Amino acid sequence: MERVTGVRWYAALRSCFPILTWLPRYNLTWLKMDLIAGLTVGLTAVPQALAYAEVAGLPVQYGLYSAFMGGFIYCIFGTSKDITLGPTAIMSLLCLTYIGGDPVFAVVLTLLCGVIQTGMALLRLGFLLDFISYPVIKGFTCAAAVTIGFGQVKNILGLKEIPQQFFLQVYYTFHKIPEARVGDVILGLCCLFFLVMLMLMKNSLGSSEDEAPLLVRSARRLVWSLATIRNALVVVAATSVAYSAEVTGHHFFSLTGKTAKGLPPFKAPPLSETVPNGTVITFGDIAKDLGGGLAVIPLMGVLESIAIAKAFASKNNYRIDANQELFAIGLTNIMGSFVSAYPVTGSFGRTAVNSQTGVCSPAGGIVTGVIVLLSLAFLMPLFFYIPKASLAAVIICAVSPMIDFRVPVQLWRVKRLDLLPFLVTFVVSFWEVQYGIVGGVVVSGFMLLYTVARPKVKKVICMFICSSPPRCLVLDCSHVSSIDFTVVHELTELLKQFELRGVSMIFAGLKASVLKVLLTADLPGFRHTDRVDEALQLLTSSNHYDPLF
């Protein structure tokens, strides 16, 4: 008995701390692969974190503050070996909408998002994500990619004072094209060119494990490795060019500028803010200003991360626990608020790199976290010279694959009506991202409710007496899985009307749970058979309608 109890306790412990499922099997081979994967992802994460902070409207160091905590927390509590948590393009865009470039608002939002996500995990409310349909997700993703990508055109051109609102951004970007800086344009286009070329080279590579000669396979591995860390290579090269120009007294490029030095202090997140004029903004005021962000950002963060985790779990043949993933993300955000992070989620691009480089366990995230911490500790002074145009090129190349032109075509072929929530979400998201999501969810909800309220009758079988009107109706209920009181009430009224007109209704193929409800309800004139064909046989075997059938 004690042994059984101990086994149960250990199983419960493993479900709470998934690290216990793989740590006892950890070996040197896994360590080698995790080191390689973690290093590779780290070299991708650092430039992306700097760039995504720009999207969120925050100083670049906040991107790095947000990029390391996930690796340590997820290693203990996560159930996917591939996924990496950190700042992403979509979350950065959502944060920009609500925080207005204020780091205090960003940190408070991170804390509250973490609390909400952890609470959802403990209450097992992950099912709420099912209300966000695939067309809504795709519409939002495509619109976000366009918004983020075009938002970086101003940095490629070196333009200043461009509004954040999308339509105004489009207008003023084109209006100020004559003010573009030649140095930024040339550098930005060069960075875009090299990023695209390296990406195309990587995609064109065949498998390195085929029958090609050793020299060819080695060359492929080298090209693949360089293409994988292309973001870091381009940012380093652009920074070197900018630094050389600055030390010689030539100011050709718009630079990132001054950044905070060193690691962020580990301290309780600020719950209030004092603005320059002395006014104190309380925690309640901050939460009120964040408004809908406290619903949109936690849900979208969880949705993005779990979708990525499920995709790679399916690809690599293992299972994840959605509620445990929700808990890991929530705890990451809570702890991240103690190091001045803004909300994070799973990154598809970095997760793909992690998987492709052969990561064997979540421990690879620790290596990535260490790389980010080392960058914060020793490289922050050099980040002053990073050209904004190079970071803009990194962002544009990162979000461009999110614009999937095949989705509308697929929706048209499968179910044309699904284009409606897709288009509503896509179009409205250019006005305000959160309104696009809400609009798409509302439209999807109305479509679902209409289908439930007005179901199509699959089989209606009527029995005629010569030229008389139909006297019997057989209803195929084999696809009815549940009914509620409203349905029972409406059926009662319908059967009464049928009885007054001398028409009988026969229910066929009722599931046991539904039949039990209908029998309990004591419907007037209720008749049923196990199958539709039984009702048909009995009806056709008689020359006239038998009301007692």
From TrEMBL:
- Select a single GO molecular function from the record's annotations and give it: secondary active sulfate transmembrane transporter activity
Identify one Pfam family in the record.
Answer: STAS
> Main localization of the protein?
membrane
Question: By its UniProt entry, which InterPro entries does this protein fall under?
Answer: S04_transporter_CS, SLC26A/SulP_dom, SLC26A/SulP_fam, STAS_dom, STAS_dom_sf
Its membrane topology:
Multi-pass membrane protein
Tree of life domain = Eukaryota
Regions that span the bilayer = 35-53, 59-77, 84-101, 107-129, 136-153, 182-201, 222-245, 293-313, 325-344, 364-384, 391-413, 433-453
What positions does the domain STAS occupy?
A: 473-523
Q: Where in the cell is it found?
A: Membrane
Keyword tRNA processing found: no
* GO CC term (a single one): membrane
User: What are the entry keywords?
Assistant: Membrane, Transmembrane, Transmembrane helix
Question: Which protein is depicted?
Answer: Sodium-independent sulfate anion transporter
Instruction: Give the organism, scientific name.
Output: Labeo rohita (Indian major carp)
The upper taxonomy is: Eukaryota, Metazoa, Chordata, Craniata, Vertebrata
